[in-house]
Amino acid sequence: MAGKNYKNALAKIETAKTYTLAEACGLVKTLAFAKFDETVEAHVNLRLGKSQTVRDTLVFPHQFKEEKRVLVFCKEDRVKEALDAGATWAGSDEYVEKIKGGWLDFDVAVATPDMMKDVGRLGMVLGRKGLMPNPKTGTVTNDIVQAIGELKKGRTEYRADKGGVVHIAVGKVSMDPAQVAENVSALMGEINRKKPADAKGAFVQSLSVSSTMGPGVWVSYKEGE
């Protein structure tokens, strides 16, 4: 059952109305009622066929997350290169063994292709935590310097769930709503670029934004905006 604060926030908006992106991001800020700095989330409902999916990464124009701790799986001759580029940890067998022992004190993992045979053995552990390196998200690569640089800048993965909805954090309520709106615009641009070639009809079915605890605000959105 919704609490009193949620109901009070909900009463401040027209739930059946769609707002401009700028209006919606402004409303989300005013509707937030928690005592902590709530995260602003975007929810994008896509029309996807059974065999279609959308998954990629992007770097938002306005960052809002703490710097990520990056683990790089690489051979010994590339450890210094990875650490100099900003990796928190870098190595090969020793980190495979640590993870087997339960160590997961990192936010994202990068691997050079020659390490994937060993890293693949960690699939059950890393896969469940969303930490498995993947070439589709740029985390299996020989260009570890570029990968680390983008991750340290806040490169974030987005993906549609089984229902065709992308749920992703796009800012904090403490941010200027205009900055949050620019982050949402960047996200929508990337999602539209990943539209499957054989997708039929309107690709973006709906878009809404909300804070962690607050009600959702529907956004008036047309493809190409």
Strand line-up of the largest beta sheet: 7-1-8-9
Poorly predicted regions are none
Count of DSSP-assigned helices: 8
Task: Calculate Rg over CA atoms.
Answer: 20 Å
- Element-by-element helix/strand order: HHEEEHEHEHHHEEHEE
Question: How many strands, which pairing sense, and closed or not: the largest β-sheet?
Answer: 4 strands, antiparallel
Per DSSP E runs of 2 or more residues, the count of β-strands stands at 9
Global shape:
globular
Strand content: 15-25%
Portion of residues within helices: 25-40%
How confident overall, as mean pLDDT? 91
Structural class: alpha/beta
Tell me what you see in this structure.
Helix content is 30%, strand content 20%. The protein has eight helices and nine strands. Helix 3 (79-84) links the parallel strand 3 (70-73) and strand 4. Helix 2 (21-31) packs across helix 8. The mean pLDDT is 91.
Quick description:
With 225 residues, the chain is an alpha/beta fold.
Descriptive tags:
225 residues; alpha/beta; 4-stranded antiparallel beta sheet; 8 helices; 9 strands
Q: Could you outline the blueprint of secondary structure elements for this entry?
A:
Layout (H helix, E strand, L loop, with lengths): L3 H7 L10 H11 L7 E8 L8 E4 L11 E4 L5 H6 L4 E3 L1 H8 L7 E4 L4 H4 L3 H6 L15 H9 L3 E4 L5 E8 L4 H17 L10 E8 L5 E3 L6
Parallel strand pairs: 3-4, 3-5
Antiparallel strand pairs: 1-7, 1-8, 2-6, 8-9
